[in-house]
Amino acid sequence: KWDIRGKQGDALYQWWRRQIGNIKGGHRYFYLMCMSIYACKCDVPRKQLKADMLEDFEILDNIDHKNKLSKKDIASALEMYSREFYNFPIDDIEKLTDVRIERNKRNGRKQSLHLKLARANRDIICEEKGKKWTDGNGRPKGSGTAEAKVKQWRENNPTGKKVDCHRETGLDPKTIRKWWEK
Questions:
Q1: Is there a contact between 163 and 153 (Cβ–Cβ < 8 Å)?
Q2: For a disulfide at 179, which of 67, 83, 123, 150, Cβ 3.0-4.6 Å?
Q3: Cβ distance 176 to 164 under 8 Å?
Q4: What is the pLDDT of residues 15-57, one digit of tens each?
Q5: Are 69 and 61 in contact (CB under 8 A)?
Q6: Which of 51, 71, 52 is nearest to 61 (CA)?
Q7: Which residues contact 76 (CB under 8 A, 6 or more apart)?
Q8: Rounded to an integer, what distance in angstroms lies between the CA atom of residue 15 and that of residue 31?
């Protein structure tokens, strides 16, 4: 199973969908096949996969090739939606789809060691320049906080609704909900 930390667990699948622009005639079916493999790896529901395939089918069908792509190709590609294909080799995916896939460049090291070395390198370079790597990062000084914006808006609009606050301030609705009652 493909486990990606963070909010978007289907990042690999979404990345693959963006590769559709690199697909040429003769590789269209294999694009759909690999889409099934990546969907299964990323726990994308089969129903969503099929809908996405139908959407991508329209684009793939316009790619010039002597063999016409058919809806049967979608059904056939859906058969690859299985755990037995989790470990389908990247080299084979590259050959079948003619899409170059960049590898992680960690020189055979484990991620934890690679990150320790990268951070040490960053710290040495910053020390040489006489700076801290955190300088210039984060929210700009004086930009205020979302909490203050929500409180100010509520003071000015005591009977206002969250949706109105969103429209007028441009803040994300989740942020507004977070600070609404505080």
A1: no
A2: 150
A3: no
A4: 999 999 999 989 999 999 999 999 998 889 999 999 999 999 9
A5: yes
A6: 71
A7: 29, 33
A8: 12
